[in-house]
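From the pipeline queue, job 12 of 40. The input is one protein chain; the requested action is below.

Action: predict structure.
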Amino acid sequence: MQYKVILIEDDYLVAKVNRETIEKHPSFHVIGHADGFQTGLKLIRSLEPDLIVIDTYLPDGTGLDLLKTIRQENISTDAIMLTAASDLDSVQQALRDGILDYLIKPVQDSRLLQTLERFVERHRLSVQKLTQAKLDRMLGLRQEGHLPKGIHAHTLREIKGLLEAIPEGLTADEVSERLSINRVTAWRYLEYLLELGELGVGLQYGAVGRPTKRYRRA
């Protein structure tokens, strides 16, 4: 699935750079660009984007006022403020109007792409039954520095990378063998990723005995 994005930015070169960065992510496509408040509002109303990236300083108004206007019209499209405005009042107003993120120019590509990935994750999790771990992840609260006891970032990255490379999935025994870790340890990490919604699971039936779980990327 590709999400539709509108850029609202009065500097053409900045808009061009932002567009190129956004479209590095395969899930996003920029469908329109406006250079002011009124043109931006018309574009949002007509194109109904999934995401808006808004600058604060516009020739005929502010991005904050534009955000407030669309919220008053019950347009719930997600929005990212990408602006040079770094004062606390601007940040607080944007947060009250439900922005996804507030990015201060100049912003690194990796930081913007991180926010886009969080957008994708929120939308993917929104169709699943939530657990506390999934909710923490949706809200951006689950960071590598705050992993549960017994879950280590390095091993977690290794297991995620292994499953990315093998789309048909692996059992806990297979993960254990490939990474030279204890089977119970492999199972614990796989169940943790399953709880977060990053993995799906199917049952693999053998000739005898109980079926085995096969984990794959969701």
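Job complete. The mean pLDDT is 86.
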